[in-house]
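wait is this the right file?? whatever heres the structure
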């Protein structure tokens, strides 16, 4: 059919164009067109593919994100172990390694490749006939987890390598690439802040965030987090393919993989040492974190001769940079209020230069940490910083040269921003401001309230909310319901239609059920599920607001800590007023009261396969009505896996973990 042939040609040309711009943007960091133009190309391709679905191929740029959340990950055995590296920390240790290389090979003039030691996680990519077919985590080194769907969303990873490129670079059609997956520091900071504002747990460093992201069961979540991948190994059947490591890196680069440009082929250990030094100075200028330098013997034949010791190759070594530290005086402590109301003590320091940056502030984390350090104002403290991460006070210096401080660090009784009394829940380290109207918390609170799983006010993102707050139009979430068109038209980028859209969204949110409103209040420890239990138990906002801590504890999954937090929230007059206004605005304050059974309280179930008499939702409902919990994946905490027909990987996991597997009939018996 000529029409389809035309379409096919057009589609392929468009794909090539998009791939080229993806490569320029994500691999070379040198975009030539704007994001807008790029999005237009992708939309055009989506449209064409929509009209000709038979022409969609797995390596089309539109197919990076696809598929539904998965149930778990399959284990995959590596073609050859994914090893770690031995570490060195000083010049002597590095020289000792070089001597050993000489001794074992009998070769004196050894060439080395110096690379940055990227602080991410290693990943293996499998390509069959030039197509990306597998992404596997390192796991225990021998076996990793199949994270292919997530890996496909990483834009610097090619979904396919064209035949001509393989030919030109000498890379075989079936090959494996290993490298480092990481999250750039700026993205880490931004995403962590977003999490903090939603009351979600934050990640302590980009590496953990990367690991958490690549192991997401839902590839759509991974796709929203900018991960980057640098290739540093090319294997075939588990063996190094090229005869020199430097050639491997060049070939990977020519084939379209992102290879770190900060690398060097050197001819002596002195040059290695120079490279190490240079990057110790410059490491802060990098957009991602490194924790050292990796030195590799260039010639594959020599690598093979050197072999491995236990878990690490003898042909490569890591030189680890030490944490950068400096000693300075602790002049004071101020308390910063985060978006969830959390108070963080910040050390005010006499300015000190650490690794080329002047440091004036460092985090003291929390009250427990202050106690652990035994810090007093006037003390000399050791301050450490890694990459772009906030400096921290590591210890108090106790020696004859540095006098000890005398002034105790005061823990504030009131929020430094709004002066509301602060609260420390039992068993918690952090003090918090519980005033929902505290300006410091406002942005995060409003964003949480408006977000998709909550009141679902589409379009009410950070830029709009910031403007609303700046102009004093929104001082708390109830103000959202007083906004009118004139207010919105006064803001940047708002025309009649966009203003009306927001007002419609706001009006629509009033139709959402009580549990959403409860969740939207942003009460600490009250997540989606707890909000639902609360709404069902009390049946109305009034009953919930007037419940005592004891009454609250009667609710499914509400323990003393959660009950106290809820009671605390409603005992604050400002919060009560806010809730009252939401009621007046017409939000759902009444719900369906429903008593859940307690027969299955504390029991966690996982459903898998197709049940004969229930849909998944019906089965879930039945188990939850009996007080049970239904989880998405099998873990050691799972009590029962309910297996229907064609049960998949969850059943295997249950067997592996020794979790009880029951059928539909047994589930009914338990729940009734
Ligand atoms: S080579 C057998 N090169 O460091 C060779 N690793 O501490 C091992 N890493 O698991 C990998 N940057 O995740 C290599 N340029 C680099 C690296 C690098 C970071 C990581 C890698 C490895 C860990 C070992």
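ok assuming it is, sequence goes like this
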């Amino acid at each position: 059919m000529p029409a389809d042939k035309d379409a096919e040609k057009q589609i392929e040309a468009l794909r090539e164009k998009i791939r080229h711009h993806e490569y320029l943007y994500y691999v070379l960091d040198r975009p030539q067109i704007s994001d807008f133009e790029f999005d237009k190309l992708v939309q055009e391709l989506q449209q064409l593919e929509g009209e000709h679905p038979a022409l969609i191929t797995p390596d089309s740029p539109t197919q990076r994100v696809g598929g539904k959340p998965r149930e778990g990950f399959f284990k995959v055995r590596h073609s050859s172990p994914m090893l770690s590296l031995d570490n060195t920390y000083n010049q002597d240790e590095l020289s000792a390694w070089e001597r050993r290389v000489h001794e074992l090979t009998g070769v004196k003039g050894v060439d080395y490749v110096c690379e940055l030691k990227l602080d991410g996680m290693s990943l293996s990519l499998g390509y069959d006939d030039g197509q990306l077919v597998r992404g596997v985590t390192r796991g225990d080194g021998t076996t990793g987890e199949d994270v292919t769907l997530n890996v496909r969303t990483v834009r610097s990873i090619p979904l396919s390598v064209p035949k001509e490129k393989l030919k030109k670079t000498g890379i075989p059609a079936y090959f494996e690439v290993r490298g480092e997956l990481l999250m750039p520091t700026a993205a880490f900071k931004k995403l962590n802040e977003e999490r903090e504002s939603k009351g979600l747990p934050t990640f302590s460093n980009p590496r953990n965030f990367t690991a958490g992201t690549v192991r997401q069961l839902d590839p759509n979540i991974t796709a929203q987090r900018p991960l980057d991948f640098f290739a540093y190994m090319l294997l075939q059947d588990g063996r190094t393919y090229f005869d020199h490591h430097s050639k491997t890196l060049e070939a990977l680069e020519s084939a379209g993989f992102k290879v770190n440009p900060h690398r060097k082929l050197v001819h002596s250990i002195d040059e290695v040492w120079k490279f190490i030094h240079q990057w110790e100075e410059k490491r802060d200028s990098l957009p991602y974190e490194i924790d050292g330098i990796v030195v590799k013997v260039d010639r594959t034949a020599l690598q093979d001769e050197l072999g491995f010791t236990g878990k690490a190759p003898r042909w490569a070594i890591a030189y680890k940079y030490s944490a950068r530290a400096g000693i300075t005086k602790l002049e004071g402590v101020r308390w910063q209020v985060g978006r969830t109301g959390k108070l963080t003590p910040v050390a005010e320091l006499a300015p000190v230069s650490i690794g080329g940056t002047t440091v004036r502030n460092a985090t003291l984390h929390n009250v427990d940490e202050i106690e652990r350090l035994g810090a007093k104002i006037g003390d000399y403290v050791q301050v450490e910083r890694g990459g772009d991460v906030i400096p921290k006070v590591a210890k108090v210096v106790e020696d004859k040269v540095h006098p000890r401080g005398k002034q105790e660090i005061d823990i504030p009784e009131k929020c430094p921003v709004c002066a509301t009394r602060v609260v420390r829940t039992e068993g918690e380290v952090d003090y918090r401001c519980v005033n929902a109207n505290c300006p410091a918390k406002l942005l995060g609170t409003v964003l949480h309230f408006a977000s998709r799983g909550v009141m679902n006010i589409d379009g009410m993102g950070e830029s709009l909310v910031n403007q609303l707050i700046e102009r004093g139009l929104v001082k708390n979430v109830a103000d959202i319901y007083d906004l009118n068109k004139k207010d919105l038209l006064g803001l940047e980028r708002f025309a009649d239609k966009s203003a009306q859209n927001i007002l419609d969204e706001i009006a629509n949110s009033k139709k959402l059920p009580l549990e959403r409103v409860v969740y939207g209040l942003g009460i600490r420890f009250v997540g989606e599920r707890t909000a639902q239990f609360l709404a069902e138990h009390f049946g109305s906002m009034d009953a919930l607001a007037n419940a005592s801590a004891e009454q609250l504890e009667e609710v499914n999954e509400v323990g003393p800590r959660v009950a106290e937090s809820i009671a605390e929230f409603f005992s604050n007059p400002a919060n009560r007023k806010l809730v009252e206004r939401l009621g007046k605005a017409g939000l759902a304050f009444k719900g369906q009261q429903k008593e859940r059974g307690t027969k299955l309280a504390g029991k966690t179930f996982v459903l898998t396969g197709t049940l004969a008499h229930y849909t998944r939702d019906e089965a879930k409902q039945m188990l939850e009505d009996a007080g049970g919990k239904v989880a998405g994946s099998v873990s050691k905490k799972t009590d029962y896996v309910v297996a229907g027909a064609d049960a998949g990987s969850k059943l295997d996991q249950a067997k592996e973990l020794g979790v009880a597997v029951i059928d539909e009939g047994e589930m009914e018996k338990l729940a009734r």
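The mean pLDDT is 90. so i think its the right one actually
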